[in-house]
Amino acid sequence: MSALALLLAAISVEVMATAALSRTEGFTNPGWSLFAAAGYVACAWLLALVVLRMPVSVVYAIWAGLGTASVAVIGFLWLGESMDAAKAGGIGLIVAGVVLLNLSGATH
């Protein structure tokens, strides 16, 4: 599996774990708490594999950027969070930054 595919898997797992945090009820709900914790452990393992093949600075920038943007969108679409022009613009800037990193050959 390519480093980029592993990175996208890590981002997906981390986004699911983060989206589940509100359901943990402060880690008093065992099922959701286990789901969230397992997601973060799996994400860390996947990231450890990715940094064997890509610079950690690039990995972290892409992981943090896409993860943050994804959680913001999921928060708006499914968790009842607000979205205004500033938030949408910020998400757009994050995505643009990740695209620029990829276009510069950072993942090769």
Descriptive notes:
The chain has about 110 residues and is mostly helical. The chain contains four helices and no strands. Helix 1 runs antiparallel to helix 2, helix 1 (about 5-20) crosses helix 3 (about 55-80) and helix 3 runs antiparallel to helix 4. The longest helix has 23 residues, at about 55-80. About 20% of the residues are buried.
What are the salient characteristics of this protein?
single chain, 108 residues, 4 helices
Number of helices: 4
Number of domains: 1
Measured by DSSP, the beta-strand proportion falls in: under 5%
How would you sum up the global shape? Answer: flat
Structural class: mainly alpha
Distance between the termini: 14 Å
Largest sheet: none
Percent in helix: over 70%
Number of strands: 0
| Mean pLDDT over the full residue set | 92
Element pattern in H and E: HHHH
- Poorly predicted tracts of residues: none
**Radius of gyration from the CA trace?**
15 Å
